[in-house]
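agent: user wants the structure for Pyridoxal-phosphate dependent enzyme from Hymenobacter arizonensis. delegating to structure tool.
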Amino acid sequence: MQSDRALLQEINEPLAAAHGVRLLLWRDDLAHPDLPGNKARKLKYNLEAARQQGHHTLLTFGGAYSNHVAAVATAGRLYGFKTIGLIRGDAPGAGHAVLNPTLTQAVADGMALHYLDRNTYRRRSDPDFIAEQLAAFGPAYVLPEGGTNPLALPGCAELVAELRSLTDFDALAVAVGTGGTLAGLLTGLAGQQQAVGVAALKNGSFLRAEVDALTEQAVGQAFANYSLQTDYHFGGYAKYSAELLGFIRQFRERHAVLLDPVYTGKLLYGVLDLIGKGHFRRGSTVVAIHTGGLQAWAGWHQRFGSIAD
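agent: tool returned. relaying tokens verbatim.
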């Protein structure tokens, strides 16, 4: 595990220099050898609550390549919980593909996998459906898809204090899927400095209401010190283009940092484009947050080949 200072990396980009913006990258992808990134931060206080409530099992939901599912399985192995993953889609075998790398590792980490067809999966937030699952599988601490709930926010908020102890900054930038990480950062900022959320999914304008609801539930207020950028989704969640993949390759060549095509590639593409458009004032320091998600590359290569090489 590296020191905090080693996790803060200067990103020397000519575009940023030309616009007078200092760009830093927080390497949460390196924060823990087995359980890095924002998913670990979201789980921190949920795991404490599970222990306090006497649970020995974690039950959660996700797609077949889910970073969250992977993180819950790893957390179970590290901290002594049984884990159950309710996975969207068909089970392997019977004409369907074998386990992908994400689910293979989840099983190796001790997770029991059960599959839900897409219509059934849509009920994942329905209290009656959750009660049915608990009746079937036994008592468990239930984590929502993506890991976003009120207890996810404090772990993400702690990153703000970590960064403030290392550097002055004017803005934090993070990829947005469910909105939990951005909401947590906003509670940590407490109205100071700016935050920029780069939506990883198409038609992500609804996320502002999600983020505001999360912060209101967590700390009793919504915040105005952030923008939600919805133009960098490259076609939608987990969609990509040759332009995005080329950017990821070039970024790795220039900075020795691997981004992922679902979240952080879109984040850094968007941040640099915003710098070029003058979104950040001259003299600003912007910290982009690498939230991890690199486990997804193994499944990506399995499906599409080594397109990031």
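agent: one observation worth passing along. The mean pLDDT is 93.
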